[in-house]
Amino acid sequence: MRQQPVTSRSQDPKRQMGAREILDAAALAFSERGYAATSIDDVADVLGATKGRIYHYFRTKGELFIGIHRRGIEWILEAIGPTAERADLAPADKLREMVRQHALMMMEHHTYMGVGQFLIDIHLAGEGRQSAAMEEILRMRRQFEDYYVKVVEDGIKTGAFRDTDPNLVAKAMLGAVNWMHVWYRPDETRDTPEQHERIATTLADHAVYGIVA
Amino acid sequence: MRQQPVTSRSQDPKRQMGAREILDAAALAFSERGYAATSIDDVADVLGATKGRIYHYFRTKGELFIGIHRRGIEWILEAIGPTAERADLAPADKLREMVRQHALMMMEHHTYMGVGQFLIDIHLAGEGRQSAAMEEILRMRRQFEDYYVKVVEDGIKTGAFRDTDPNLVAKAMLGAVNWMHVWYRPDETRDTPEQHERIATTLADHAVYGIVA
DNA sequence: GTCTATATGGAGATAGAC
DNA sequence: GTCTATCTCCATATAGAC
To answer: Which InterPro entries match (chains A, B) (predicted)?
Structure first.
């Protein structure tokens, strides 16, 4: 795989529309059957096209994978970043809202989250090592995790939270939410906004109660 | 892949010794490079052997995968089952001890946990659908998750825990611990029993505090 | 920009010697 | 029970027509 192919291609806005459709199809296929078990032809089937179309936008299967992960992380950052950077919220309220938004995003874009969130490290070892796109993704993930560590640290400083290891507790909270892609599956009949809200707030409450002093 | 090959073979205790070595190697290789990116030759390299040896014990690559997952779940059940079935513990104490033991096992056998815990569903879609071994694994996982749901329900009934959705909160707890395979990596220098204990109790405390009334 | 047709390389799996 | 040698297939990726 060559250097930074994903990023350079995605500069062109025209390309992004076709590419987005393809990423949606790939995310769906990968999340249903797994990365290894899904062929490019499978993705093409989901698209209702042939693989010629896919290879017009993505050089390799690994690039599809990176593209999915990248978008997934971007969505999470969009979900929690604005809240994380507000200065007017007490740590407990900020944390609750971050988890809530994070959880809602996990449900809204679940196909992107299942594949990306965690297979990335292990698969990239064999797929897209040290590309520029990879660096960017790792940078985003670090930032996203730092948001969690930061709010926990703040709460401990102000005395709102118990005195514990902020990094470890942040991992626990991240795990609880990221793990959603293992068990959450959209369900046409029961999947109302109210249901999503209930799930998100339940998870948020558990995370916050786990650390308040 | 044929029906129930793993289980029938593992009846023979002689076989298990050779098989165990191979599973260790495969678990290590898969956890480092990912299932898709790891070839049978890679696993053989870790073993210091050739793939002839591997195929003497396992019919397919998917069987290796199932074997790893199965053992991982068995370890977790061994870790939490005895505690979960004690009648003399208050829900909060029982839950804390379950999470603690679960977390310790995640660290002790981390190579088995990373691969198995969650890739199973998606990979098996393409590898070993509805085999007897698969059924057994799903049964064990259900039991293991039920232990968590049960203790939460008990705590809510006795009033020790907040009144919330036991299934959802159990998912959150399971996620926090299972997620360890994403971030935990053994470290020769810092990896003391005390360090493991500290990590396990921190996670256990967060899980319990998150739900106590 | 999307298709059909094709190449090719690599990995899973097997046969049979030792 | 483990090895070497080999087969076979199929998924990735490409070439080139439309």
So the answer is: DNA-bd_HTH_TetR-type_CS, Homeodomain-like_sf, HTH-type_TetR-like_transc_reg, HTH_TetR, KstR2_TetR_C, Tet_transcr_reg_TetR-rel_C_sf
Q: How many CB contacts within 8 angstroms connect chain A with chain B?
A: 138
Give residue-wise pLDDT tens across range B90-106: 999 999 999 999 999 99
Q: What is the DSSP letter of A60?
A: S
d(CA A172, CA A175): 5
Q: How confident is the model at residue A3 (pLDDT cuts 50, 70, 90)?
A: very low
Which chain A residues in 182-201 lie under 8 Å from chain B, judged by CB atoms? 182-183, 198-199
- Tell me how far the alpha carbon of residue B67 is from its chain's centroid: 12
Burial (CB count <10 Å: 0-12, 13-18, 19+), residue B187:
exposed
Multiple choice CATH, B64-209, 3.40.50.300, 1.10.357.10, 1.20.58.760, 3.40.50.10420: 1.10.357.10
Residue from B182, B190, B195, B208 whose CB has the most chain A CBs within 10 Å, to mutate: B182
Number of neighbouring beta carbons within 10 Å of residue A191: 13
CATH for the stretch A62-209? 1.10.357.10
By percentage, how much of chain B surpasses pLDDT 90? Answer: 69
* Segment A119-151, tens digit of pLDDT: 555 455 445 555 777 788 888 989 999 999 999
